[in-house]
Design a protein that fits this description.
The chain is mainly alpha-helical and about 140 residues long. The protein has five helices and two strands, in the order ααααββα.
Length: about 140
């Protein structure tokens, strides 16, 4: 099977990053031995990649990031639950059933504006916290 230059160019980034399998490394090295111009470009890129490689992260960093994300998602879930609950309380309805019909449906906030208005204010704070947390987790 003949390997084309385009295939080697596709494999070269993996090879230079050190992430290619042993068989792929061998294939690329064999081709580079036959193509001195591409081998020169690969050496130049290898030096560039070697100089600009980021420092190794501590091994526990991934675990810390996962724990932090789980904690933030748990807080977001609680904020959502409280926001829904206080919104539902603040917008409670009184439904009167008379002879199988609903002659009267009214918002309870009209009867108790202080208490239910406070619930809606608390709900607004929870909604703000929820959307702030959602934005924070998105970024």
């Amino acid at each position: 099977m003949k390997v084309t230059r385009e295939v080697i160019l596709d494999l070269l980034p993996l090879y230079l990053a050190g992430e290619a399998s042993p068989a792929t490394r061998e294939l690329v090295e064999e081709y580079l031995a036959q193509d001195p111009e591409l081998a020169r470009q690969a050496r130049a890129n290898w030096e560039l990649v070697g100089r600009s490689s980021p420092p190794a992260a501590p091994p526990e960093l991934e675990l810390k990031a996962l724990s932090r994300t789980r904690r933030l998602i748990a807080v977001q879930t609680w904020l959502f639950g409280f926001a829904i609950s206080f919104t539902a309380i603040g917008l409670a309805l009184r439904i009167t059933l008379h002879e199988g019909r609903f002659p009267q449906i009214q918002l309870e906030i009209l009867q108790h504006p202080m208490q239910l208005g406070l619930c809606l204010l608390i709900a607004a704070a929870f909604w703000a916290g929820y959307f702030a947390m959602k934005w924070r987790l998105r970024v």
